[in-house]
Write a structure and sequence with these properties.
By secondary structure, this protein is an alpha/beta fold. The protein is built from 13 helices and 10 strands. It has one domain. Strand 7, helix 6 and strand 8 form a beta-alpha-beta unit. Helix 2 crosses helix 3, helix 2 crosses helix 13 and helix 4 packs parallel to helix 13. The protein is globular and about 50 Å long. GO terms for molecular function: N-acetylglucosaminyldiphosphoundecaprenol N-acetyl-beta-D-mannosaminyltransferase activity. Pathway: Cell wall biogenesis; teichoic acid biosynthesis. Catalyzes the conversion of GlcNAc-PP-undecaprenol into ManNAc-GlcNAc-PP-undecaprenol, the first committed lipid intermediate in the de novo synthesis of teichoic acid.
């Protein structure tokens, strides 16, 4: 499928790695597409894809279907970029979950779109809300709820009553995506994104890797230095690339 953004034509052909779809669009192309989908009354879902998640989905058909049923599977992982290069694909830059959320927040502030935050601890989501509102003038966060709320029906009503158009869910993956999949038909929200620990970042509780690491695609290495226990999880990257090389 081809979409037109101004004078730029973008081929919306998703790439696939070990049966998992990955969107080739960058931040601005996704925003442009989301704007059109909102105006058309369509709902959109965003899920971050990295080698660890692809390897897990390769052994779990439900997870694979959950990923592939999303509107945008963003390439949040240097391993996806390397795989695209190995297979002569078109994905050349990461689209990280936390940066995608911030870009959507800026979009919401600029175009007066209503935002709802759901997840994390009470003090974290409150601080994230406060910091985002201070950073983006005009941002309209119409509601929030921590991730420990028990009455889901009341939560859904609160979200719908807020008339939120963008909903960010911070519950960890795949729990947040499963929640979105189950509740999307019950909500009038137009854009859903599972954002993992992003509220902690915006609340100032967690520091991201320095910019130079992020630019070089080495954020994973910085996190490994800080948290050596992540080594087992990081082993998914070489296993993923070997499987990519062995596939036709």
């Amino acid at each position: 499928m081809i979409k037109q953004y101004g004078k730029v034509m973008v081929l919306m052909k998703k790439e696939q790695y070990l049966g998992v779809d990955v969107s080739p669009l960058n931040y601005e192309e996704i925003i442009d597409d989301i704007r059109q989908r909102i105006e058309a009354g369509k709902q959109s879902t965003i899920i971050a894809v990295n080698p660890e998640k692809v390897m897990a989905a390769n052994n779990n058909s439900d997870l694979k279907n959950l990923i592939n049923d999303s509107t945008y599977q963003i390439p949040d992982g240097v391993g996806i970029i390397l795989a695209s290069k190995l297979k002569k694909g078109n994905i050349r830059s990461r689209v990280t979950g936390v940066d995608m959320m911030e870009r959507l927040i800026r979009f919401a502030a600029e175009e007066d779109r209503k935002v709802f935050l759901y997840g994390a601890k009470e003090e974290v989501v409150v601080k994230a809300k406060k910091n985002l509102e201070e950073k983006y003038q005009g941002l309209n966060i119409v509601g929030y709820e921590n991730g420990y709320v028990q009455d889901q029906e009341a939560l859904l009503k609160k979200i719908n009553d807020s008339e939120a158009e963008l909903l960010f869910v911070a519950m960890g993956s795949p729990k947040q995506e499963l929640w979105i999949q189950e509740n999307k038909p019950k909500l009038a929200v137009k854009v859903f994104q599972g954002v993992g620990g992003s509220f902690d970042v915006f609340a100032g509780k967690v520091q991201r890797a320095p910019k130079v690491y992020r630019q070089l695609g080495l954020e994973w290495f910085y996190r490994l230095i800080k948290e050596p226990k992540r080594l087992k999880r990081q082993m998914a990257l070489p296993k993923f690339l070997i499987k990519i090389l062995l596939t036709k």
